[in-house]
Amino acid sequence: xxxxxxxxxxxxxxxxxxxxxxxxxxxxxxxxxxxxxxxxxxxxxxxxxxxxxxxxxxxxxxxxxxxxxxxxxxxxxxxxxxxxxxxxxxxxxxxxxxxxxxxxxxxxxxxxxxxxxxxxxxxxxxxxxxxxxxxxxxxxxxxxxxxxxxxxxxxxxxxxxxxxxxxxxxxxxxxxxxxxxxxxxxxxxxxxxxxxxxxxxxxxxxxxxxxxxxxxxxxxxxxxxxxxxxxxxxxxxxxxxxxxxxxxxxxxxxxxxxxxxxxxxxxxxxxxxxxxxxxxxxxxxxxxxxxxxxxxxxxxxxxxxxxxxxxxxxxxxxxxxxxxxxxxxxxxxxxxxxxxxxxxxxxxxxxxxxxxxxxxxxxxxxxxxxxxxxxxxxxxxxxxxxxxxxxxxxxxxxxxxxxxxxxxxxxxxxxxxxxxxxxxxxxxxxxxxxxxxxxxxxxx
Length: 444
Known about the structure:
Layout: H1 12-42, H2 48-60, H3 62-75, H4 84-101, H5 109-136, H6 138-141, H7 145-176, H8 181-205, H9 221-230, H10 232-262, H11 268-277, H12 279-294, H13 296-317, H14 322-358, H15 363-391, H16 407-417, H17 419-432
């Protein structure tokens, strides 16, 4: 089949409806990385090394699952279009599964770890059913690069709002309901509501969006994956983004540890996270201007450098207390905003360029590989922090039990929250500097 004539401009309702989905993806992408490792080690009493594996292994499953979902959704034909049936399946199952993660037994750490591993695996599967086709939509509901940029600006704004609501709200709910298993269960209900509103909102809000007719790729998944990997702009962007996701995953998982062990202020966790994420809502227009003036690649390199510098300085300022740490966390948050916005707006450009060159619909495969790699990076982050804490002798605890950590354990928390993310983001910069997509690179 050949492409039909370009569709009319998307309505404001479609812009808003599509953006709502990012509230759901932000909630699931943020909260497990922020709280699940701490829940396992300091509420269920699971050893730090085992807890790191529990957080990592279920999401590693996405490396296999997400490309398969992308390939299948590329070939799906329905009156709802190729993506929305998959999105609906994820939207109706994930909220309940998220609650179940924190609704398991807490008496025996081993049994609790198994419960979390299994339910988190199921939740990650449901999330993939929504996320992969959701990320693929912009490349095929409009042929206009400017329209895609507008759609992405709405999505990134909603993503920042979702990260702020989930990342700051979830710890606040835990604190309000007592920090123990009851607090985490209440938090899971709160996050489940965000998931439901965001994901179901996207399914309903994109119901009138056109699905442009494409040439359908009939190749096997393995062959199509090789073709996707052969795209140099995609490969470079993906590798750099995953390295950054790993650094962000380490930092997010370290928030509650850093506030308690380094700042000696357990209540600072919510404030730290808000300082990290809130700047995104305010500085997003600034990064859009930077992208239009300098290009998306240069904007991403600038944002990454800012993040790495701020994280490095935080290693020095952290022990001075919350007041000294907060300004640097805000600066890190400004860089983090650009690190989120630019790759999200560059990915549809890469997909569109591939489709123009190949004449085949491979958006689902590209986004399947992308979301699998992103999920893996964010999952490895907490796992890496867990292994670092275990090597330093961090002592797990249960409930309200207070354990005095050793000097090496506190140092590991400090390094894990600052130096490790800074080094990982720095490592991504030479990779991302090689990204080239001249036809669209300067169009933000």
